[in-house]
Design a protein that fits this description.
147 residues, alpha/beta, GMP Synthetase, Chain A, domain 3, 2 domains, four-stranded mixed beta sheet, three-stranded mixed beta sheet, 2 helices, elongated, Zn_ribbon_PaaD, Phenylacetate-CoA oxygenase, PaaD subunit, MIP18-like, Fe-S_Maturation_MIP18
Length: 147
């Protein structure tokens, strides 16, 4: 199922599908949303159910979980490239140190690959993205926050 907000990647590419259990004709899918307040939560749940029923499952249960919390490290490597081609700067690895980031992230323009970018808004059209402008090519773009 495509991500409802970014059609070039699937929820599996984004690392949101955490478990799939099949018992006879019953299927249970567990997913983790990118943010606890994700506005697409209902859409994702309904899309998973529709996709699994389309494969012939008689019973479908879709569960969301916030533990462990989703991290940008779960995004597949090939999905990062598709994000870049779509015009969204993929996130840098968040790592697992548990420490608060004190230095700015290194963000690269998805259009010209320049690191000479400036942050214009900490919150973009979704909670997981920021807005930037590239100083080299002057193009505005969205970039994923590393979480």
């Amino acid at each position: 199922m495509p991500d409802p907000e970014i059609p070039v990647v699937s929820i599996t590419d984004m690392g949101m599908v955490r478990a799939v259990q099949v018992r006879g004709g019953a299927v249970e899918v567990t997913f983790t949303p990118t943010f606890s307040g994700c506005p697409a939560l209902h859409t994702i749940r309904a899309g998973i159910e529709e996709a699994v029923r389309g494969l012939g499952a008689a019973e479908v249960e879709v569960r969301s979980t916030l533990t462990p919390p989703w991290t940008t490290d779960w995004i597949a490597e090939d999905a990062r490239e598709r994000l870049r081609e779509y015009g969204i700067a993929p996130p840098a690895p968040a790592g697992d140190t548990g420490l608060i980031q004190l230095t700015p992230e290194t963000t690269r323009c998805p259009r010209c690959a320049s690191f000479d970018v400036r942050l214009t808004a900490s919150f973009g059209p979704t909670l997981c993205k920021r807005l930037y402008v590239c100083n080299a090519c002057q193009e505005p773009f969205e970039g994923f926050k590393s979480v």
